[in-house]
Structure formats: C-alpha cells, structure tokens
Design a protein that fits this description.
Blueprint (H helix, E strand, L loop, with lengths): L1 H19 L15 E4 L3 E4 L4 H25 L8 E6 L2 H8 L5 E4 L4 E5 L7 H23 L7 H11 L2 H8 L9 H5 L2 H6 L1 H18 L1 H9 L4 H5 L3 H12 L7
Parallel strand pairs: 2-3, 3-5
Antiparallel strand pairs: 1-2, 4-5
The structure holds zinc ion.
The site of zinc ion has 4 residues, from helix 4 and helix 5.
C-alpha cells in the first residue's frame, strides 16, 4: 500500500511539474536546478546528462553562444546583468516531458533560463548549424524579453527579431527564391499565425523586422522593442502602410532584400 501511495504521489508531482512547465513560459514555478557542466564568459551551461556524454555538445553550443553574444547585446543596445543560464538536454523525449509540449527550445522568461534539446552528436554539418542557430535564436529572445517582458506577447516582433538577429533569416533568404505565401495583415498580427504557418511564419516575420531595421534603422527597432505599442508613432507610419510597403519590398527579387 505504501508503494502505491508513493507511486500515486509521484505521478501527481510529475503531472504538476509537467503542467507548470507547459504553455508560454509565464509560470512562476522554477524547475529543479541541474548540474553545472560548463561556465563561459557570459553563460552557465547545465545538463541532466553525464558530463562525458554532453561535454562535446556543450562546447559546440557555448562557442556559438559566445561568438554571437556581443553582436546581439550591441544590436539591442543592452547589457545583461547576469550570465545567461542554459539548460541542455540531449534526450528529446525527456526534454519535451519536462517542457510539457512538443518543442525543441524555449526561453523561459519567468525563470530567465534558455532550455534546449540538442542531439548529442553534432557531427553532421547541417544538424550542427540547426542547433547552434537555435541557441543563438533563444538568446535573442532572452535579450529582448529582458529588455521588455511584454515583447513575448507580440509574437511577430518576438519571433521576427529572433529569426532576423540570429541570422537564420539571412541564410534562408539565400535559399528561398519565391515568396508565394505572404501572410495577410491579420495573419501577421495574430499569434495563431505561427501555429498555422509553422516555419513560414518565422521567415516572414523575420523579413518584416528586417525591413523595419533596414528602412528605419536599428535605433527605431530598439525603440519598438522597448515600446511595441508605440510603433506607429516611432516610425511615423501606420501599421497598415508599413505592411503594404513591406509587401512591395517582398515582391522584388530576393537578392535585393
Ligand atoms: Zn523563437
């Protein structure tokens, strides 16, 4: 009977934990701290995995993180007060159980922790690029959501800035030749657009943020990150007009974007 009670209590604890970690990361429940595997100039890398199994992947991720750190902090004109905590899991199902949803990476704003799944083997160059890009992407979220937590609720800006500033956008622009599935204005502004369109949503929101940065300057982008509701005043333009101008820009050859 004791065993049954123990199992029951453990299941309930597990359910509470999984529920607390799901959703948009706004919960206040801190997850249990993991062993520290590596400390770098600006990062603290933790993992539930044995150091000998995760050392190599964390070395690769930490190098990508450090080599992009200053560029991103400078781009958003922000000095982080603490080293960034990063949890690395090499077991995808363990990671998704912990997160409570099917994701491979997230910045958990309430805990100020980047949490990522990364395969233990990054020997394949494409896989390596995908997951080093992911950690840089999550770091952009960490910076802009620490500047202004409300950015997390303006999805086109939050994801668009992450996709743009991580250079994932630049790489995709080199591969993509046609833009046939541009979002409507309503789609662009809707958080559901990301569920509906998947990777295309990241791409188009990235180009929208890039268009603003190129047309109005990094300073204007920074002011928008700090005060998204004032975007029309900051750009001296209506959102509708901005959208129409971006659409015209997207109809030009990709090389000119
Ligand atoms: Zn993101």
């Amino acid at each position: 009977m004791k065993w049954n009670r123990f199992v029951g209590a453990s299941l309930i604890a597990l359910l509470i934990f999984a529920t607390a970690c799901s959703g948009d990361g706004t919960d206040k429940t801190a997850s249990a701290e993991l062993p520290l595997i590596k400390e770098t100039d600006h990062g603290l890398f933790y993992s539930p995995d044995l150091p000998e199994n995760v050392n190599r992947v964390i070395t690769i991720l930490s190098e990508a993180f450090e080599s992009n750190y200053s560029r991103i902090a400078k781009l958003f004109d922000y000095e982080l007060s603490d080293k960034t905590s990063i949890y690395v899991y090499t077991d995808k199902s363990e990671f998704q159980t912990m997160m409570g949803r099917a994701t491979e990476g997230s910045y958990v704003a309430s805990e100020k922790i980047i949490k990522v799944y990364t395969p233990a083997n990054l020997d394949d160059p494409e896989t390596r690029e995908e997951y080093t890009d992911q950690i840089v992407h999550e770091f952009v979220h960490a910076v802009i959501q620490q500047i202004n937590p409300s950015v997390g609720r303006v999805k086109w800006l939050d994801e668009g800035a992450a996709y743009y500033a991580s250079n994932q956008l630049g790489k995709e622009l080199q591969r993509r030749a046609v833009f046939f599935d541009l979002p409507t204005l309503e789609q662009l502004k809707s958080p559901d657009y990301f569920d509906e369109a998947g990777s295309a949503a990241y791409f188009y929101c990235g180009t929208f943020v890039q268009y603003m940065a190129d047309t109005y300057g990094a300073d204007a982008l920074n002011r928008i990150v700090r005060n998204p509701k004032q975007i029309e005043r900051i750009l001296n333009n209506s959102f509708e007009k901005l959208y129409e101008q971006w659409k015209i820009q997207m109809s030009k050859p990709p090389s000119s974007l």
